[in-house]
Specification:
It is a single chain. The protein is mainly α. It has 8 helices and 3 strands. Strands 1-2-3 form a 3-stranded parallel beta sheet. The longest helix has 24 residues, at about 220-245. The protein is globular. Nickel (II) ion binds near residues 110 and 165.
Length: about 250
């Protein structure tokens, strides 16, 4: 069930049978010469939207702008600063909690978001902690590539050249979902170099085409399909465990 395609009364009915909601969260940033700018928000959205076709789960609108300041050297990248991101996650969460949601599951598609999402969780829990009262909600962060079975599958699909940015696994997922937007390029070197992540000018100088350690030519829609099917199944299982977890008090 997709929240944006639902009415308020349908959400009210959903709340009578579940207090859990999934928020796909990512980033809009360069993904090398062939990766789509939306890759990091599309991957968790594609997986979540696929999962809800076979399970009674609710998917919120995708939070599609994240921590991408180091990619601003490449046109099309849009970023928030950490304080804005943390504040926005706070207000999304407070809105959902106000309606009665108690388990809020963030399915993340961007490694650069992790620290700030966890900081946002700490801010939200602190509001209850300072008053020494129960929060009334529980938050969970899960990166889509950490869903059970996904890492094993990606390692088997891409034993070399996976890297950490503009990876063939994430590009494969978008290729499966958007076959009309598959791009090609000659990569040089075939597997990109690695390096630290600092500010935008430094990143562009170290990684001139935007990739980090990856060979996106290894991606294919078929591999993307395998990843989405595995991830969607594991997401449904994760949500069952999270929903049944005892508490909040
Ligand atoms: Ni990415």
């Amino acid at each position: 069930m997709l929240l944006p395609l639902s009415t308020w009364s349908e959400i009210q009915q959903f709340l009578e049978r579940s207090r859990t909601i999934v928020i796909p969260i990512g980033s809009n940033e360069q993904h090398g010469p062939t990766g789509l700018l939306g890759t990091d928000w599309m991957c968790p959205e594609i997986i979540a939207h696929h999962a809800q076709k076979s399970a009674d789960i609710l998917i919120a609108p995708t939070f599609n702008i994240g921590m991408a300041q180091h990619h601003l050297g490449f046109p099309g990248t849009i970023t928030l600063r950490p304080s804005t991101f943390i504040a926005a996650i706070g207000d999304w969460t407070r809105s959902l909690v106000a309606h009665g949601f108690e388990k809020i599951f963030f399915l993340n598609g961007h490694g650069g978001n992790i620290a700030s999402i966890e900081a946002a969780f700490s801010e939200l829990y602190a509001e209850a902690s300072f008053h020494r009262r129960p929060a009334g909600f529980a938050l969970k962060l899960c990166n889509w590539w950490d869903l059970e079975g996904v890492g094993t599958l990606a390692n088997a699909q891409f034993p070399v050249g996976h890297g950490i940015h503009a990876t063939p696994s994430e590009i494969a997922v978008t290729q499966w979902a958007f076959p009309g937007s598959i791009k090609t390029a000659d990569y040089s070197p075939q597997i990109a170099n690695w390096g630290p992540i600092r500010e935008a000018a430094d990143f562009r100088a170290r990684h001139p085409d935007g990739r980090m350690g990856s060979d996106p030519a290894l991606a294919s829609p078929g591999k993307g399909r395998e990843l989405v099917l595995r991830a969607a199944l594991s997401l449904i299982q994760e949500l069952e465990v999270f929903s049944e977890e005892s508490g909040p008090i």
